[in-house]
Amino acid sequence: MSEFPESEAKAETECVLECKNLSKSFRQGPERLVVIDHINLCVKPGEHLAILGRSGSGKSTLLHLLGGLTDSDTGQVMVGGQNLTQSNASQRARIRNKKMGFVYQFHHLLPEFNALENVAMPLLLGNAKPKLAYQRAEEMLESVDLLNRAKHRQAELSGGERQRVAIARALVTQPKIVLADEPTGNLDGESAAQIFQLMRDLSERCQTAFVIVTHDEAMAESLHRKLRIVDGRFTDPND
Ligand SMILES: Nc1ncnc2c1ncn2[C@@H]1O[C@H](COP(=O)(O)OP(=O)(O)OP(=O)(O)O)[C@@H](O)[C@H]1O
Ligand SMILES: [Mg+2]
Fold this sequence. Notes:
Elements: H1 9-12, E1 17-28, E2 31-43, E3 48-52, H2 59-66, E4 74-79, E5 82-83, H3 89-99, E6 100-103, H4 115-125, H5 130-143, H6 159-171, E7 177-181, H7 189-206, E8 209-213, H8 217-222, E9 225-230, E10 233-235
Helix pairs in contact: 4-5, 4-6, 5-6, 6-7
The structure holds adenosine-5'-triphosphate and magnesium ion (MG).
Adenosine-5'-triphosphate binds at residues 26, 33, 35, 53, 55-61.
């Protein structure tokens, strides 16, 4: 894969996030709705992967499975070589906190905390020393150009600013992988482009892989790889 520097050739062979034979169905009265149908996936370190698919095709469900937020019916999810599926609740929480970052369509900032506190939160939950956590959070806020909004709470931030805070929060632990569900879905075109550029810049600096669910075909085209979900499986994205 020519997108990756040669020095990382070895790392390319490893998956920072991997799933095998992953399935999920939901009960609908007497029937079962199969949403994810035996999916396999390997995301390489630093790779940027777009997941496309129509509304209701299972994109969010897949991200929830990959993040260990939802239990699958079959299959395994491995994160940085650790088996998320076979971990107990506290091990999962630790893997999620140390290795993964999450960005949602509607940011999910904690409304009672300011921007700086929100960004520091994953480090504090991971038992980092508060002084260090706040120092790192300040650096992250600076890199998303929001240090001047550090004391603002969610209600005092614009939609785009909230997303930038959410991205800073997702990256503050320098996770191996960030799962982002339509991170620019509620933003105008220019703000969305800025957010994607930011994610790319930060990812380059920290070698973070991204799995980004999006409806934005042009954005998907600009990433390393894209996959489309149809009937619970990945299809040729150009179909
Ligand atoms: N907890 C649940 N119980 C029953 N059905 C569910 C549940 N969660 C999701 N579904 C169904 O699974 C399908 C996939 O949902 P999902 O949220 O993954 O879609 P999506 O691709 O993210 O859609 P969108 O682009 O609209 O966000 C939908 O048909 C939805 O109705
Ligand atoms: Mg969704």
